[in-house]
Design brief:
It is built from 10 helices and 14 strands. The chain is α/β, with parallel strands linked by helices.
C-alpha cells in the first residue's frame, strides 16, 4: 500500500464508519522509553544508560513498538538530558544494532535547562523523526530525592520553569530537520498551537502526511478528556496522521480512545511510571504489550515498522550509524 491509502478524514462520520467496516489502518505504537526529567529515583526500572535504553527498546520492539522516542542522558549527570550529538549517536547505534528496522525518533524537547542550540543536538545524530514542540510551556514538577548508590545523586527538588519556544525557534528546528531529511513529529499541547503548525505548513517547512502528536495531560497542555481530544482532531489539517499521548493516569484512556478513532498512540515510561494504581511499570515493553493487546481486541492490527514507514511517508531504508 501507498502512504495515501492510509490517509483519511478522521472528522468525517461516514468515512469513519466506512473505515471501521473496511478495517481501520494498522496501529502505530511509539514508545517513549526514558524522557528528559525523571530517572531511577522515580522508578528503578526506567532506563538511563545507552545499554539500558537499547535493551528496553528491543523488548518494546518485540512487543509491537515500531517507533522509539529517545532522550539520551548526560553520562556526567544521568538524570539530565544530553546536549551532545555523540551521546545520541551512541544510543541510536545500539538501538539500531538490536532493532534493524525500528523508526528512531529523537527529542528536541531535551530537558528544562537547555538552550535552543543544545536541544538541536539530537538532530545531528541521524534519526528518522524528531519531535518538534509547537510552542512554549510552563512546568512545575516535584522530583524525588536521588540518593546513593544511584549515580549523580541530588536532593529532592521542584522544577519550576518556562520552556521557551518562539516562532523563529520552531521554524529553525523545522528547517534544519528538512535539510537533513528528518520528518518532524509535531507535538501539539493545546489548540492555540495550530497557529504555529499552519505557519510551518505555509512556509513549506513540513510536508504531508503531517505527523501530529497530541500531548494530553501535561502541564499547560489540554486537559486529557475525550471532549478535548475530539476538539483537537476537529482542527487537523488535511493529510494528517495523529498520535495521542496521555500523561500518568491518563495514558490508558487517551490511547484507547485514539485506537477507537483510528489514530495512533505513544506509550512508555517518559509519560507514565505506573502500570496501575500502586504498581510501578516493570519495563517499557509492559506498556507496549498492553496497548497492543487492547488494539487487537478492538480489531486493529499492529503496524510493522515497514507499515509505519509507509503511513508516515518516510524511507524504507533505516537510518545507519
Amino acid at each position: 500500500m501507498k502512504t495515501e491509502d492510509y490517509i483519511w478524514d478522521y472528522r468525517n462520520t461516514y468515512e469513519w464508519m466506512r473505515m471501521v467496516r473496511k478495517g481501520l489502518p494498522p496501529l502505530i505504537i511509539s514508545c517513549a522509553i526514558t524522557g528528559g526529567v525523571q530517572g531511577k529515583e522515580a522508578n528503578e526500572n526506567l532506563p538511563e544508560t545507552p545499554e539500558e535504553q537499547a535493551e528496553q527498546t528491543y523488548e518494546a520492539y518485540q512487543a509491537g513498538a515500531s517507533i522509539v522516542h529517545v532522550h539520551a542522558r548526560n553520562p556526567e549527570v544521568w538524570w539530565m538530558t544530553s546536549s551532545n550529538p555523540e551521546d545520541y549517536i551512541r544510543v541510536n547505534s545500539l538501538i539500531r544494532s538490536k532493532c534493524p528496522d525500528i523508526i528512531i525518533n529523537n527529542t528536541t524537547g531535551g530537558g528544562p535547562e537547555m538552550t535552543t542550540e543544545q536541544r538541536m543536538a539530537s538532530i545531528y545524530a541521524n534519526p528518522e523523526l524528531c519531535s518538534l514542540n509547537l510552542g512554549p510551556f510552563v512546568l512545575k514538577v516535584p522530583l524525588a530525592e536521588r540518593a546513593e548508590p544511584l549515580p549523580s545523586p541530588r536532593p529532592a527538588m521542584v522544577y519550576d520553569r518556562c520552556i521557551p519556544n518562539s516562532y523563529a525557534d520552531i521554524s529553525l528546528y523545522a528547517k534544519t530537520m528538512k535539510e537533513k531529511g528528518i520528518k518532524p513529529e509535531m507535538e501539539l499541547y493545546h489548540p492555540g498551537q495550530y497557529w504555529v503548525m499552519f505557519d510551518l505548513i505555509q512556509q513549506g517547512l513540513v510536508d504531508p502526511p503531517y505527523d501530529v502528536q497530541f500531548v494530553m495531560g501535561f502541564q499547560t497542555s489540554s486537559y486529557p478528556t475525550p471532549k478535548n481530544l475530539l476538539g483537537l482532531i476537529d482542527e487537523l489539517p488535511p493529510q494528517s496522521i495523529f498520535f495521542a499521548i496521555g500523561v500518568g493516569h491518563f495514558q490508558l484512556p487517551m490511547t484507547v480512545m485514539a485506537i477507537l478513532l483510528g489514530g495512533h498512540v505513544r506509550v512508555g515510561m517518559e509519560d507514565n511510571l505506573y502500570y496501575q494504581r500502586g504498581q510501578k511499570v516493570k519495563s517499557n515493553a509492559e506498556l507496549v504489550a498492553r496497548i497492543a493487546r487492547i488494539a487487537r481486541e478492538m480489531n486493529r492490527e499492529i503496524a510493522t515498522p515497514q507499515q509505519a514507514r509507509e503511513m508516515l511517508g518516510i524511507s524504507q531504508e533505516p537510518s545507519q550509524y
